[in-house]
Design a protein that fits this description.
Elements: E1 13-22, E2 25-35, E3 40-44, H1 51-59, E4 66-71, E5 74-75, E6 86-90, H2 101-111, H3 117-127, H4 143-155, E7 161-165, H5 173-190, E8 193-198, H6 201-207, E9 210-215, E10 218-223, H7 225-230, H8 235-240, E11 245-255, E12 258-263, E13 266-271, E14 281-286, E15 292-294, E16 306-316, E17 320-327, E18 331-338, E19 350-354, E20 361-364
Parallel strand pairs: 3-8, 3-9, 6-7, 7-8
Antiparallel strand pairs: 1-2, 1-4, 4-5, 9-10, 11-12, 11-14, 12-13, 14-20, 15-19, 16-17, 16-19, 17-18
Bound molecules: adenosine-5'-triphosphate (ATP).
The site of adenosine-5'-triphosphate (ATP) has 12 residues, from strand 2 and helix 1.
Length: 369
């Protein structure tokens, strides 16, 4: 593809002991983070957890109260924003209304007196598939098209690190999904380091190579999306990334790499390596899709990982039917079944649940369930 410039590697980004205080309030607490060059990295968390503050410090728009920021090994902590090899794309696109699309994209390059500004801007527009709209003004574009112009404008400057602060927040769901796909494709193609801030877990999971889940100014857990989903280490992560069933239990023994725990009326097993704590009170988790739903009591009981309860909610979603099941002394357990023609369970039915020990995970006993 001739529109794509040669693969220019991004830079490593490192945060060392970053803290940000606003008067008494600590917005970001002692953050340590290394993002290898060329990574699509997502900072994910609820409103107010400190994502934007972290991004603003990387951009040089806010100074950290403590700690250091390194880009490509160079300490940039005291450098002003324009001297850092970073560009930021915000949710509000901030295109210049009186300029054409092409002039908007060329703006930064012209300011840097780049002789090839117009040529590079055209290439940038091709990359986001908008070269045919080069002569329009921003107001003549849709929201998604404006978003792509903002992205092209940032990309043509070839920052080593591209910061994206909820860049898709203003788009409707369909366009948002399409842009997620395109952004990821562009990032893979140009090989820059992307730091993407979002509170949308699906967006973070589908786009990022590495996700850091933030809560109250700290990173709770960081890893590949699948690893975070399969093996959350805290109740916050378990609940923020998808749905989880969590139940209180007490460890009673250990055998063949499995921890045996007693929950109310049910024995559960969890692999030792999937538990953050191996004795005392713990919290056992299992994802809804890992549960098997049976209409009849199982003929042969293993004595482990088996629950029964009453269906208290049934919702049809098209491909699946979701159930909420009240399990005595344990609480509400969510699961679903594929709609393959069998008769779904009804409200009030007694149903039986089981799961494979390999899918349990174990959290600390003091987690709030
Ligand atoms: P959102 O998703 O809502 O944008 P966020 O995770 O990006 O949230 P931040 O904008 O980083 O959150 O804010 C983190 C915390 O710091 C919030 O509690 C916020 O109220 C506080 N905060 C941010 N900027 C300032 C400021 N200039 N002065 C005082 N407090 C601030």
């Amino acid at each position: 593809n001739p529109a794509v410039p040669p693969r220019s590697e991004g830079a490593d980004l490192e945060l060392k002991g970053i803290t940000k205080r606003f008067a008494e309030f600590i917005a970001v607490k002692d953050l340590d983070l290394t993002v290898p060059s060329g990574t699509f990295f997502a900072l994910l968390g609820p409103s107010g957890c400190g994502k934007s503050t972290t991004l603003r410090m990387i951009a040089g728009l806010d100074a950290p109260s403590e700690g250091e920021i390194l880009i490509g090994g160079k300490n940039v902590t005291s450098l002003p924003s324009h001297q850092r090899e970073v560009n930021t794309v915000f949710q509000s696109y901030a295109l210049f209304p009186h300029m054409t699309v092409l002039e908007n994209v060329a703006f930064g390059l012209k300011r840097k007196k780049d002789k090839k500004a117009m040529e590079k801007a055209r290439e940038g527009l091709k990359m986001v598939e908008l070269d045919h709209l080069a002569n329009r003004r921003p107001e003549q574009l849709s929201g998604g098209q404006q978003q792509r112009v903002a992205l092209a404008r940032a990309l043509v400057n070839r920052p080593q690190v591209l910061l994206l602060d909820e860049p898709l927040g203003a788009l409707d769901m369909k366009l948002r999904r399409q842009m997620q796909f395109e952004l990821k494709a562009i990032q893979t193609e140009v090989g820059l380091t992307f730091i993407h801030v979002t509170h949308d877990q699906e967006e973070a999971m589908t786009m990022a190579d590495v996700v850091a889940v933030m809560n109250e100014g700290r990173i709770e857990q960081m890893g590949a999306p699948r690893d975070l989903y399969e093996l959350p280490k805290t109740a916050f992560v378990a609940n923020f990334l998808g749905k989880s069933n969590l139940m209180r239990a007490h460890v009673v023994g250990q055998q063949e790499g499995l921890i045996e725990a007693q929950a109310a009326g049910c024995k559960v097993l969890v692999p030792v390596e999937r538990a953050v704590q191996h004795e005392g009170d713990i919290v056992i988790g299992v994802r809804p899709e890992k549960l098997h739903l049976h209409r009849e009591a199982p003929q042969e009981s293993t004595g482990y990982n088996e629950l029964s309860g009453q269906v208290i909610d049934v919702s049809f979603t098209g491909t699946t039917t979701e159930y909420l099941i009240e399990v005595p002394d344990i609480g509400r357990i969510g699961t679903f079944s594929q709609n393959r023609g069998q008769q779904p369970a009804q409200m009030g039915d007694t149903v039986y649940l089981s799961w494979d020990s390999a899918h349990s995970f174990g959290l600390a006993g003091d987690e709030v369930v």
